[in-house]
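Task card 7
Instruction: Convert sequence to structure tokens.
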Amino acid sequence: MYYWLKTAFAFLRYRKLRNSLTLFALIFGVAALTFLTSLMVGITDAMIDNSVRLHTGHAVITSRVDDPSPVIARWESMPVPTGVSAIMPRLQVAAVVG
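Output:
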């Protein structure tokens, strides 16, 4: 076993440039894989978040309070553009439905 370790370290000393390039390639490869994996996870999370925001809004939750909040009052006072029958704000609320 001592012979193999001695030979391995001799080869490491003999080819310094090749060994340093190999070490750099390994470090660069690990860094690239880490970056691309985190980028992929971020893009997937953003796509899921955008898809949920796009396809939700089918349920309308209203309050029976006579005095609307200032946000709803601003939306109700907004002029309706031509060709649009009504304007409704999209409220983002975190909730668990089960």
